Amino acid sequence: MAIVLGPNQYGKAEIRLVTVSRNGSVHTIKDLTVSTSLRGDLADTHLTGDNAKVLATDTQKNTVYAFAKEAPVGEIEDFALRLGRHFVDSQEPITGARILVDEHSWDRIDGHDHSFVQGSNEKRTTAVTIEGSSAWVVSGVRDLVVLKSTGSEFHGYPKDPYTTLKETDDRILATSVTARWRYTGTDVDWATSFAEIRSTMLKTFADKHSLSLQQTLYAMGEAVLTTRPEVAEVRLSMPNKHHFLVDLSPFGLENDNEVFHAADRPYGLIEGSVLRDDAPEAGLAWSTLPAF
């Protein structure tokens, strides 16, 4: 029996980067978490401890900071592409790179040029994979919490001896959306594309009368693909943030869908992908990313 080294990669995880762009008294904040991963001819460091081909993770961290100074960060997709291509082009043993970026939101305080308030926990994300001269971009959003107080039903499901859930034709529907979409290429107006995709998903969630969270998930993905030709595939993960009607009858009160208990766990987890039937091959776009 032989023992061999399998697929491997290494890098610097969760580099915190904040930049301030100063245009006179008007400042703009970029708040990012960047993770780098490199692949290639790295067997020697695993098998013999020879580090001659290992670009130190500390160097990778320093590169992130230096790149943020040398040129504006700009859109996170462009920043990740620049970093990934740099590592592959500048280090002969390195044949592939994966750059993950989360962007944390800050909103300008009304009437102030350089004061900000942190937005919600929602994060804009991107995952850029470089392999040789090829590049794949998967962007998205995480922790996008949405709720509608009506326009949602759930009924017609199988009943067995363990079923206690009551059918309903009017319920609160709430979820925390994690969405990732695979682009067909890299010649994209990233800012416009992100804004339009996010707006489309929110509008579909609000407008679609829902008979199940699964139906809503598909409708959101379908709407993105219908309106955004630069997107080949959408993957969504949507936990059902349950709101249960409180029984107020012991107090002689009627609860007409007004008072709820918000339960954080356990929760239903609905996941799925929506893609064009003629979508180009994904290549390495989803490699090392969660399925959803």
Automatic annotation (TrEMBL):
The organism's place on the tree of life at top rank: Bacteria
Binding-site residues, 5-hydroxyisourate: 57, 154, 171, 214, 240
Gene Ontology terms: biological process: purine nucleobase metabolic process; urate catabolic process
GO MF assignments: urate oxidase activity
PROSITE patterns: URICASE
Pfam families: Uricase
Family: Belongs to the uricase family.
Name of this protein: Uricase
Organism: Lentzea jiangxiensis
